[in-house]
Amino acid sequence: MNEQENSLFNASRTGDLELLKELIEQKTGLNIRDQKGYTPLIIAAYNGQLEATRMLLYAGADVNAQDAGGNTALMGVCFKGYPEIAELLIENGADLNLQHGNGGTALMFATMFGRNALVKILIKHGADKYVRESRGLTAMDLAVQQGNVEGLELLTT
């Protein structure tokens, strides 16, 4: 990875909007990947950088890019718990039912980690509650397994 690409990842991670804007204007590849398959968008979203995420999306970053494990930016924010970034990703075409390498979805991440505000958002936008991961479990099964009573209620109403 060259210096410009490293700078793009760092600006995405830290939310350095001035540098990010400059790199976008220099036509730095927005969908480049690091050794783990992360894109600048995945990094910005995962680190809670709302404005950097917005800037990357508006510049054309692939909202459904998957890392080496098949995880997307939406899955990352559902793991970390960033509802506002999730809404932004969904508004920009994030696939709610995309599955990672083990078959998990963003809804499953939100359910497993008790991110019930995100469970609400995903259901509101039409996430499929019945998708099964590699062990055959649905988001509802995972809510039971994790003792997420509120999440289970959201999934069954």
From TrEMBL:
<dbReference type="InterPro" id="IPR002110">
    <property type="entry name" value="Ankyrin_rpt"/>
</dbReference>
<dbReference type="Pfam" id="PF12796">
    <property type="entry name" value="Ank_2"/>
</dbReference>
<dbReference type="Pfam" id="PF13637">
    <property type="entry name" value="Ank_4"/>
</dbReference>
<keyword id="KW-0040">ANK repeat</keyword>
<feature type="repeat" description="ANK">
    <location>
        <begin position="36"/>
        <end position="68"/>
    </location>
</feature>
<protein>
    <submittedName>
        <fullName>Ankyrin repeat domain-containing protein</fullName>
    </submittedName>
</protein>
<feature type="repeat" description="ANK">
    <location>
        <begin position="102"/>
        <end position="134"/>
    </location>
</feature>
<keyword id="KW-0677">Repeat</keyword>
<feature type="repeat" description="ANK">
    <location>
        <begin position="69"/>
        <end position="101"/>
    </location>
</feature>
<dbReference type="InterPro" id="IPR036770">
    <property type="entry name" value="Ankyrin_rpt-contain_sf"/>
</dbReference>
